[in-house]
Amino acid sequence: MANTVLVETSARHVHLTEEHIEILFGKGHTLTHKKDLSQPGQFACEERVTVVGPKKSIANVIVLGPARPASQVEVSLTDARTLGVDAPVRESGDVAGSGACKLVGPAGEVELTEGVIAAKRHIHLTPADAEGFGVTDKQIVSVKVESGDRSLIFGDVVVRVSPKFAAAMHIDTDEANAMHASGVVYGEILA
User: Fold this and answer.
1) 27-42: burial string, b at 16+ Cβ within 10 Å, e else
2) Which long-range contacts (CB under 8 A, 24 or more apart) does 16-22 make?
3) Which member of 73, 98, 138, 154 has the lowest number of beta carbons within 10 Å of its beta carbon?
């Protein structure tokens, strides 16, 4: 397949500010690196929190590092319904006016007045990768994924280009379940 990119499933997770890390886990606490993620400099942490919505809570939600300028909770739309939270589909970091929740850690709680989103499906590419695929930053593309009896074409996929990225498409668990994803999955970018 020409123009193929690795497709990864991004499960629910939380990004935290330094201030919120200290409130949730204790004064002077720093995130504990568990394993590297596919994007350079990003990592899964040992730390977990409970996300509390108006309807229900979801416990044991993983924290990703490093610390961010704004705390953000990324959930699937199914998770959002479970929590009772309005989680608009947005690019990471675009949290203005998004859903609210409470985060509970072992040392404290944080009320987020905004920050809960369902991440817009996206592709991380380096400038060289983007040039090779014939796409540009912020371009909207479709991606065809062959997956046994549940093959599909994802539309409205935003291309994100930075020299800090590694080539990978990210979808949430609802989207992965829709195509019955298992094992290593690749998609074909249809520009």
Assistant:
1) eebebeeeeebebeee
2) 16/63, 16/67, 16/68, 16/71, 16/103, 17/67, 17/68, 17/69, 17/70, 17/71, 18/67, 20/71, 20/103, 20/110, 21/47, 21/67
3) 138
- The string of pLDDT tens digits covering residues 33-63 is 999 999 999 999 999 999 999 999 999 999 9
109 and 135 in a single domain? The answer is no
Decide: pTM greater than 0.70.
yes
Domain that holds residue 166: 121-190
- Asked if 149 and 85 sit in the same domain, the reply is no
Question: Cβ atoms within 10 A of the Cβ of 57, count?
Answer: 14
79: its two tokens: 């998770």
Say which residues have a Cβ less than 8 Å from residue 131's Cβ, sequence separation at least 6. Answer: none
Q: Which two tokens stand for residue 9?
A: 């499933």
Q: What CATH code is carried by the domain that includes residue 170?
A: 2.40.40.20
Which tokens sit at 162?
A: 């930075």
* Locus of tokens 């800090």: 164
Q: Can you read off the two tokens belonging to residue 22?
A: 């200290």
